[in-house]
Amino acid sequence: MRSDPAEYELVAPGNLQAALSLLANDPGAWLPIAGGTDVMVQYAAGNLPARKLLSIWGLPELRQIEVLPGEIRIGAGCTYSELREHKTLTGEFPLLARAARWTGGIANQNRGTLGGNIVNASPAADSLPSLLVYEAELILASVRSERRMPYREFHTGYKKMKLAPDELIRAICLQPRFSTHVSYARKVGARNAQAISKICIAALGKAAGGLVEDVRIALGSVAPIPLRLVETEKSLRGKRIEPALVRLAREAVAAEIRPIDDIRSTANYRSIVAGNLVVEFLQKLGAGRNFT
Amino acid sequence: MNGVRIVGRPVPRKEGREKITGSAQYIDDMTLPQMLFGATVRSQIPRGKIKKITLGPEIAWNEFVIVSAKDIPGKNCIALIVDDQPCLAAGAVNHPEEPILLLAHPDRHLLPKAVAAVSIEYDALPAIFTIEDSEKKSEVIWGSDNTFKSYLIEKGDVEAVWEKADYIVEGEYRTGAQEQLYIENNGVIAAYDAEHGLTIWGSLQCPYYVHKAMMALCDLPAEKVRVVQMETGGAFGGKEEYPSMIAGHAALLAIKSGRPVKIVYDRLEDMVATTKRHPSRTRHRTAVSKHGKILGGEIEFVIDGGAYTTLSPVVLSRGTIHAGGPYYWPSVRVRAKAVATNVPPHGAFRGFGAPQCLFAMERHMDRIAQVVGLSPVEIRRRNFLKPGQTTTTEQTVREEIDLEKLLERALQLSDYRAKKERFAKENGASTRRKGIGIAAFLHGAGFTGSGERYLSSVVGVEGREDGSVRVLVSSAEFGQGTKTILCQIAAEALGLPYEDVSIAQPDTGQVPNSGPTVASRTAMVVGKLVHSAALGIKESLIMDGKLVDACSAEEFRSALRDYVAAHGPFRSLARYEQPSGIFWDDQKYRGEAYAAFAWAIYVAEVTVDLTTYGVTVNDFVALQEIGRVLHPLLARGQIAGGVAQGIGYSLYEKVIWQNGRMQNGQMTNYIMPASTDLPPIRVFFEELGNVHGAFGAKGIGELPMDGPAPAIINAVADALGVGFDFIPLLPEDIFARLGAISDTELHPAGAA
Amino acid sequence: MSLPVTHDRRKCEISFTVNGVPTTVDAYPMERLLDVLREELGLTGAKEGCGEGECGSCSVLMDGRLVNSCLVPVLQASGANVVTIEGIAQGANLDALQEAFLEFGGTQCGICTPGMVMAARYLLSKNPHPTTEEIQEGLSGNLCRCTGYIQIFDAVANAARRGFGA
């Protein structure tokens, strides 16, 4: 344990308004901490620059999963276990459910929150690609207002995001309109469970008459942010699912992603495996089956 | 029949209750009054000379105890084999993370900042990091030629075989470093006062190694040093020699401050600064007849020892002796050496040289099979050692081991033939290629040659006031079941209930030196001594007229109670005696290398996913002949655990080096298999007995480490038709190789 | 070399229940729950193996959920119901899961055992009849270097068969 607890302040206001007021009074001074599965690791390693922390763990306003007409609203403080246990959510959004299963071991799923994962903004985070393909929207709250933003616009660069210093993510909104889509998700890590992904994919598609009607593909660990493969999707839409499409898809994916060499894997490996995963998705799409 | 009441049955683990309730006392669970916490300032460069040490102004240094090499009362070294490793670097630095200064403070939270506030200026020197760079000798970093030790084995006439050979098969095989990754990091507490001397409590395997090292470091006589082993959370060799270093550090701080000092590493420090398995390079050149018989060959075996000697000569020894595997070599030359590089010294890890050379041997056998046009099964059958034949060191195989039969049994248990055929058929079109591979091997138990005689282990059994007996050994429990089996042996020998036998905590102030807990010697060598010592108690009672040989447990207890009441508690001691007929020539490296070999055949079934290039082990059969199963659960647990570590060694555990420093010193990035990565590990035993071991037992602790890697990599070759000759084998490595081969060129079978 | 004893205003009183006992500690809010349990409360059953939530040897139950106590700031345990390995056995009586671990050789060096027992307990409380795959998944956050897991799985499966958790 390489940090001195005596140097850190941690406060836990009992409700969201109090938390937001604290952020508003002293913007940028407080680091929010939810389940701690990222922040506490940095802290123990002696790598946490922040000295004032604001605990948002357990804030009741952030812990609901609301099933509304046309939308499911997931409180940003919901843990991965809570996501996994919510039958409607997992039924409508299997890619997110799958990713929740992959996020660390059970103990970390009991503490890690979806909001925390979004704000931690690791490009390797397992659940973020699924939010991209599901066209998630975020509700951001501050004392000033609440606003909605398409999640696609949230990350602007490595660990940079459109979150004002006095804002918290309040909820993640998903509209159930993909139940007839073929869904495909896969994570490639150094081992089967509890591994940071070398690459992960979430994809949705619809085929009709052997043609790609709709396709949405997002990858983690191939860019500084979780990446929606917009150009690849464009090149696939309306095309016939056949071997020629496979080659086209590989080229499009390779052109669109920017993987790096790092401690976990290599750029070349990520590049080719990304193509393999997209091809595997297309094969499932062609066969008309779900594959998660 | 010998030993049916207790030995051979799954009696409760002696210390199981404490472990399952969380009351077992590991070193970090222990505190002493007035205790300080210690930390180590370490080199950040791989090689150079320390020019200047500056203590930063932001720290209240007067609150700290600071120790440097100048404070060492005795000799600045960690005494082991060759006294070349300093306890604290004084001028020269030879590896990253080399200890330089020690700090202590009552508040452990203030230590990381203080360590960071020590700035050290160096005159850097060129450093070397690979076996090849060491061999080049353009930088000589140790001795005159970077070579810690070398061995030469020569049997028969190697020069004559090349002309007679129908095939000459060559191969080069490499293994990487591996971290022991015990879940409990290294830790010790030291306390010193002039009257009692120095006491060390720690997580360790060899209390007497630490004892010897502290005497030399602190200039203390034997009776002024006491070492106590606490409950130890895994060791695997990683706590064989390293504890002497951390104990020395705590001792120096304790001596200087007059207060107890605890040093417990966190995971990062433990990974980057302590010992790992030696990386290796093995080169085979083998003369083979057209019938697939090995005529002879040359084996060059090289291990990277890191910056100081530590145990490299002994690791090298075991690797040298095992390099020929379980095969008959009419002629062979084994040239082996351990070389120096500027990385933290490598050290003991389960297997101790054998996993390295046996990986090479078993990969090479599959290569020979392919060249000659025989199956991996057939090539082994034709070359297995048979009773009456001699090993590479000309040790005659005296037991009735039938390796062909053992192989056949393993093949049936794993359904090898049917699977191999089915995989070959089904692989062609699939993105998931399956394969199945074999490894055949042996593992010598106990110290090599005259090593056990040199150790001259002593074991005690104590008769106590209440009529029970207590085993006194320095052999450490760290999960393998030391306490349980030694108590079983004593109970069996005396006809007592298992509950009537206890075992003392290893404390050099209380127990004799039964030798280090290494080399798979505890059941076999120490167990046999426990047997003798236990019988010695009974003999004393018989000689005293209190007992007859055929007595009941209650009669024994009663007689012992009377005896102790009259004479006080007493000990029966047994000392190791080398069995007659065991000859070992240390110069020629020839003769009876080990008192007993265990034999094994492992079979691994894998799937290679061509989408991710990942390898999954789907099924694993571990069949071994181990003399006698003393405790079925412990034995199975040892094999399963060793196989899991072997799977890690082959497919998951990669040390990423940069300038001699491990870059992935965290569990997030140094990957060991978790529960979802392992296949069902199916363990089977055969028992031929062993005259040199307690109740016929051979050592088994290290055996399971030798087989998984070659079995798995052979299976991958079977799946892909492409052979790999190094471990760890990561998906990125498979990808890099296959990337050069198109899908149509990938043959499902045929390449080794 | 003693430091002057003063009350540190950066500490606060944090109350929670540990193994059924209401407890109050005076701690820095960012002290790890693991350290508070071990050092303040003398409950040394939970262990530090990695300090980063990878090995699970620090696992405890917090409000009925398995958590890695090395990642919980003690302030976040305020008002919580914490159960550690010390709270499992009833005096001299081990519970059925603990008995199964001993009977099936699920413990070797013992350092992962407290966390492993808590994780197995949590698994069986949520899923009293797990398949082998479900046992593997339930324990995937608890690393064991000694056993290769097979005898741990045997123990958990056996406890499940005997109705533990149902």
Return the domain count of chain A. Answer: 3
**Span of the ends, CA to CA of chain B:** 47 Å
Helix content of chain B: 25-40%
Tell me about the largest β-sheet of chain A.
5 strands, antiparallel
Query: CA-to-CA gap between the ends of chain A?
Result: 38 Å
| Unreliable spans of chain B | 743-752
Radius of gyration of chain A: 19 Å
Known CATH architecture of the largest domain in chain A: 2-Layer Sandwich
Number of strands of chain B: 28
Structural class of chain B: alpha+beta
Determine the fraction of residues in helical runs of chain A and give it as a percent range: 25-40%
- Overall mean confidence score, pLDDT of chain A: 95
State the major sheet of chain B: 7 strands, mixed
Task: Tell me the strand order in the biggest sheet of chain A.
Answer: 4-5-10-6-7
Secondary-structure content class of chain A: alpha+beta
The general outline of chain B is globular
Main β-sheet, spatial strand arrangement of chain B: 3-5-1-12-9-10-11
Architecture overview:
- The complex is a heterotrimer of chains A (292), B (752) and C (166).
- Chain A has 11 helices and 14 strands.
- By secondary structure, chain A is α+β, with helices and mostly antiparallel strands.
- Chain A has 3 domains: 5-55; 60-174, 2-Layer Sandwich (Uridine Diphospho-n-acetylenolpyruvylglucosamine Reductase, domain 3), CATH 3.30.465; 184-287, Enolase-like, domain 1.
- In chain A, strand 11 and strand 12 (197-208) form a beta hairpin.
- The two termini of chain A are 38 Å apart.
- In chain B, the strands form 7 sheets. A 7-stranded mixed β-sheet of chain B has the order 3-5-1-12-9-10-11. A 6-stranded mixed β-sheet of chain B has the order 7-15-14-13-8-28.
- In chain B, a hairpin with a 5-residue loop joins strand 13 (280-288) and strand 14.
- Chain C folds into 2 domains: 12-87, Roll (Ubiquitin-like (UB roll)), CATH 3.10.20; 96-161, [2Fe-2S]-binding domain (DNA polymerase, domain 1, Orthogonal Bundle).
- In chain C, a hairpin with a 2-residue loop joins strand 3 (59-62) and strand 4 (65-68).
- In chain C, helix 2 packs across helix 5.
- The model of chain C has no long low-confidence stretch (mean pLDDT 95).
- Chains B and C meet through helix 1 and helix 17 of B and helix 2, helix 3, helix 4 and helix 5 of C.
